[in-house]
Amino acid sequence: MSEMPAAAKSGPAEEAHTETLSPATRRLLHGPILPTLLGMAWPNMLIMLAQAATGLIETWWISHLGTDALAGMALTFPLIMLMQMMSAGAIGGAISSAVARALGAGRRDDADALVLHALVINLVFGLVFAGLMLAFGRSIYTALGGRGAELEAALAYSNVVFAGNVFLWTLNGFASVIRGTGNMLVPAVVICAGVALLVPLSPLLIYGFGPLPALGIAGGGVALVLFNVGGTVVLAWYVLSGRNLARLRWMPLEWAKFREILGVGAAGAFNTIQTNVVIALATALVAAAAGAEAVAGFGTGVRLEYLLVPLIFGLGAPMVALVGTNIGAGQRERALRIALTGGAIAFALTEAIGLAAAVWPNAWLRLFSTEPEMIDAGTRYLRIVGPTYGFFGLGLALYFASQGAGRMLWPVIAGLVRIGIALGGGWLALRWTGSLDGVFAALALGIAAYGLILILSIRSGIGLRTMKAPAQ
Prior knowledge:
- The chain is mostly helical.
- Helices cover about 80% and strands about 0% of the residues.
């Protein structure tokens, strides 16, 4: 006997379950998809663009310290973005997904328990990565092609940022718990307020003013750490005060709760590492073929690609909450429609940015430097890779949908294919032609393959075929 679709179930038990849900959860389960998704996405996109702006603001100020400082920032950027993407996207998305699925199934006690487990996980990860980078940062940046003054600049910035790494993780941990309830506005307001304070603080610490000493490139790192500390304090207060739907309660830790987060988070972290490995090793290829100016140009161009990550995360975090809540309630067909709707929006947004960058690359690159070799490398990158940005946005949005469902096989497969095409093809192109254009073409093909694999797998039903709702 076939099982009746979850969306068609009715009766006293189902109605009673619906009545126990909060109004916010019922909106995620029954509200019109496009207005609900866009209504949740706009404050989250604002917060992500604000966070991305912190890096751009620092880069703009640090670019005035010279090409070596800008090249040093290019070396550190993939690893610092790795922390941001893992804490907010991979582990953070897994936290939001677990909380959303628990609330969608009406398991409020489990949602509360997940808050404590999420905080423990983020504290541990923040401390472990801080220790690794403080101990082995010089070796890592040297392996990525850092030499001389650019290496010293990278270390001066990196050591400060990673000394305060735990605050980045706790900030995104509390924000992820709040987003899992469908509340995107509170994290947006807190982080945007922090950015407003960071804008004047960063140049004051970099260049000094009055009694404040000039800290140089390290001053940008100090400003970023202070930003994360302030955000952590405010979001922690919001959750601890009981205002959040999922509350922090002290209780015995359970391995099952850790596994619920880490099972999805590990696959997400692997996918995030793949993305950053592509950029980090591509930076090494550029460094091997050209000088610091080319590295600075490539790094500045790649910053625009990285800017797409927080933009799509702004859309993806609501997708995690919406898909996760509907999976928790057994509404699999609605979850699939949410995934395809979000993917289409992401493609349109990122493709528009990529085409604009390809047509007018100088509008972006000259914000940071006018060095001819830097402009040349950045222009070639944007004109070759920019037109494929839509596939990157599409794939990333579907990654978040898969994360909400708790099914991460196809994002991992797509990421592995991307890394093979981008790095294998880039290495071969550089060896055969000695031209950076071949490296950039391989990066573009890798991005296109990533997006196409995910949309074909999900649209055909293969990627989400194993999505199952927990027993009610």
